[in-house]
Design brief:
about 280 residues; alpha+beta; Nitrilase/N-carbamoyl-D-aminoacid amidohydrolase; six-stranded mixed β-sheet; four-stranded mixed β-sheet; 15 strands; about 25% helix; globular
Amino acid sequence: MSVLKNPNDNLKKAIDWIGKAAKKGAQVICLPELFRSPYFCQREDIKYFDLAETIPGPSTESISKIAAKKNVVVIVPIFEKRGKGLYHNSLAVINETGEIEGIYRKMHIPDDPAYYEKFYFTPGDLGYKSFKTTFGNIGTLICWDQWYPEAARITALQGADIIFYPTAIGWHPHEKAEHGKPQFDSWKTVQRGHAIANGVYVAAVNRVGLETQTDDSAGIEFWGASFVADPQGVVIAEASTDKEEILLAEIDMDRIEYIRRNWPFLRDRRIDSYNEIQKRFID
């Protein structure tokens, strides 16, 4: 998706795209991170807290109706207002009957130039999640989570067949010429690595377009390029960098079993030797 200024317009657009995806045969549908508004984390401004909503709330209530009507599961990213002064970068998984199957709250919160998320979001406290649905076990992580192998591993160990990463990531325009290609390659490679290391499918769902918040801001050029990788890291579907579209991919449960039999990484893990991973750094 590209994102409009008005949150209600973005919700209507998302519902329209969900209907189109369902018509094409999609069973599990994922929207990009914080899809209801432009990426406001480019600046620190308390007025943007007004964009937050509860779960259940307007987004889940509206999308629950289309999910039940079309008999699909929808992953709905939300700027969650949990309480007064307490906010999360979250998502709700809505099942094919329109009920909320569960909530995931983003665990890793970045604080980088134009990605000032620590100002807005409290780190997640629900842990890592795999949701059992009619169409398979759905693991969910969000954007910055996608750089952490520990998050993917724990999600896979909970039975996820596919890990969805709703995302809002792109270039600072002034860096694109020098750093653009290696940045993009790193983003894609690390997620393909999660698919391989855990024997799961991975789906990264990004937004597209240049978004600026002020006239003197260079903004962020979101690079789109949503993709799905299979358990061997093979990219089986990939979107364009500059237009809205539905990316449809088929998940083969038998392939997960086949790959894990041949690459038995989960079998050979030395769980008795990993205690040091719980330390911030080993001096």
